[in-house]
Every structure is written in C-alpha cells, then in structure tokens.
Amino acid sequence: MVFLGLKTFLMVDTIDLKIIAQLEINARTSYVEIGKQIGLSPSSVRERIQKLEDNEIITGYKLSLNNQKLGYGLEVFIMFKLFSGKLNTFCKQLNEFPEISEVHRITGTHNIFMKVVLIDQLHLQKFIDRLLVYGEPTTHLILSDLNSAK
Questions:
Q1: H or E, element range at 137
Q2: What is the per-residue pLDDT for 65?
Q3: Which helix (H) or strand (E) holds 117?
Q4: Which of 113, 110, 122 is nearest to 82 (CA)?
Q5: Cα separation of 139 and 116, whole Å?
Q6: Domain segments of the chain: what residues?
Q7: What are all long-range contacts of 14-20, with beta carbons under 8 Å and residues at least 24 apart?
Q8: How far, in Å, CA of 110 to CA of 105, rounded?
Q9: pLDDT score, position 1
Q10: What is the distance between the alpha carbons of residues 72 and 10, in angstroms, rounded to a whole number?
Q11: Nearest-CA neighbor of 25 among 112, 150, 113?
C-alpha cells in the first residue's frame, strides 16, 4: 500500500498510483503487462515510470532473496542500545557485519534497530559477541513474515 504526503500526492495521479501498485507486486513487470492491467500503451507506461523516477518518487528497485534456500535459517531483529560515544564508531564498522540486512537509527531507549540474517543459533551467538563491544543488544527471533501472507 502506498501512503503519500500532500505534496507528493499533487505530483501523481490515479494512473501513477496504479503503476506503482503493479510495481510493488513485481518490480520486473514489463511495460506491456502493466499497460494491459491499467489500460495504457507500453510507451505511456514507460514515460510515466520515467517521470516517477525523475521526480524521485520511485527511488530504486530491490532484490528480494529467500534466505532459507541460501543456507541462512535464522532471522532476528536486534534492538541495540549503544554505549555512550560509540555511535560513530559503530556506524563506521557496519561493513564488517555482512549479516545485517537492515539497520535504522531510532528513538527511545535503544539507538539502533537491525534485521539480521544468520545461519543458526551458534552464528547468532558469535554475532552478538561481536556487538557487545559497542553496546547492549536485545534479540527477537523472527517466527514468520506476515507481509508474505497477504
């Protein structure tokens, strides 16, 4: 579902929103297929997508992987409370943690929210041990992705 602010809403129309909805389902959908779904020619679809990209409404296309099939059977969220003065150091070291698939700076009692993809519990234990020099992690095991159930 797309939520747009007032300024953005004025830049797009209902046809653009239909194109965005199709691309959210599958970003690799062809202009021809999108055109069939919404009643436009492929060239009109291409022009509208280009406009959406030029106006930075569409900012990129994301690859989605099945981590289970790649051997990563454990996904966790980690709420991370950094020690005082460790934020910059931690941010500079993020490349040393390839297990982190998402990382966000947040408000509240924790500073960082991460989604981490791991092989198993032993991998999780070693990952947490590496984090402990920066702060206090609180780990939450992901049981299922409810978005994929839609």
A1: strand 135-141
A2: 87
A3: strand 112-118
A4: 110
A5: 10
A6: 6-54, 74-149
A7: 15/40, 15/48, 16/48, 16/51, 16/52, 16/57, 19/45, 19/48, 19/49, 19/52, 20/52, 20/57, 20/58
A8: 9
A9: 46
A10: 43
A11: 150
Amino acid identity, residue 150? K
For 45-84, the DSSP string reads HHHHHHHHHHTTSS--------TTTTT--EEEEEEEEEPT
The residue type found at 114 is M
Q: What is the pTM of this model?
A: 0.74
Q: What is the pLDDT of residues 67-117, one digit of tens each?
A: 999 999 999 999 999 999 999 999 999 999 999 999 999 999 999 999 999
- The CATH topology of domain 74-149 is Alpha-Beta Plaits (3.30.70)
**CA dist 76 → 96, 105, 114 (Å):** 18, 17, 8
Whether domain 6-54 has CATH 3.90.76.10: no
